[in-house]
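Notes from the pairing session

We agreed to fold both candidates in a single pass and log them together. This is the raw record for the first candidate, unedited. Please don't reformat it; downstream parsing expects exactly this layout.

Candidate A
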Amino acid sequence: MKFKLDIAHQVPGRIRLKANSAKRNPAILDHIKQLFVAIPGVESVAVNTTTGSLILHYDPTQHVEVYKNFQARYASHALPASTSPATEIDAAVNTIEEEAEFLASRSLMARTVVDFCKTVDQYVRVASDNTVDLKIIVAASFSILALMEIGVTASTPLWVTLAIFALNHLAELNLPVRPIV
């Protein structure tokens, strides 16, 4: 499985990774942790589920060997940086998440709803091996509902009707003429 991992900071003895797609998802962060804790020379891996970051601590005297093994694992499990560039959709999602957290900090009902959505999102991500999340399911559901509603009430667009009419008449014009008997 590949993840969107970024090396946020590194000094001999310490490497900090960011996995933004795994924020508040302990199952995925634990999976990533297991990939790097098995590297010979790595002493510990600290995980922060709130920020989606991991900090690898290792013996600085083994820097060359640890870093070589780290690079091999990182290259085999990290998506290239160009795979998922930041978009306006990412910015909108981040804004909505920040507003939800702001409201949740001021209301028990909002906190309950936000926590429920995060729990459902986590179950969906784990069940789909981090392929699908709740945002995709909600967007797809709204799209399907909109298409169903449009399909019931929409008529054929005028350009489609005219195109069919023109093709039909073109075909009739090019038919061989049969003599009338």
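Candidate B (folded immediately after A)
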Amino acid sequence: MRRRTLLVVVALLCLGAAAVSALLATDVRAWQSAVRADDARAVTHPAGAMPRGADEALPFHAARSLLGLQDDLELRRALVLFRAGYTGIASRDQSTAGSAARAQAEAALERAGRGSGDGPRASAAANLLGVLELVDASAGVRNESSVGRAIVELQNAVRLDPGNDDAKANLEMAMAQAPPDSAFRSARFGSTGKRRGGASESSAGRGY
């Protein structure tokens, strides 16, 4: 009798494990579809394509954790905010709304950079933080201090990923904007900045 009870328990546990595995597989497919859909929306509406995520059957975001998507989703959200904060349209970027959008983007990029254990991803976030500081400088917001912060972020970006050519190009541009007597004029690529952080979108070496 005891043996029979044990067999029933084992069978139930096996059924439960099979059910969990099936649900996990369903959640993984849901996330894969959601990411593809978000990518497609980002192409057509980059400034408004905030990642929507997936409806998961299992609790505790098991599929998202299994796929290692958390850092990627943080960076994707930050990129959407970045696009809203830096449109390339001077009247928009220099407006009060543009400054507020950049403040949101900077906070999101800082979170994405701090939370990432991936050098290139963290470098990408630092590069974009540097770009936003340069946009602030060109808009007359915080000006010289913004250039200094941009240089620090871009130095971090190069340090975190020496192959980040966008960050190197942006760093050259930022150095050129520093005052002639600034200590940053003698700074070298890859010197250590003040904050870990880390993202880049444009093609290699073009800057911004």
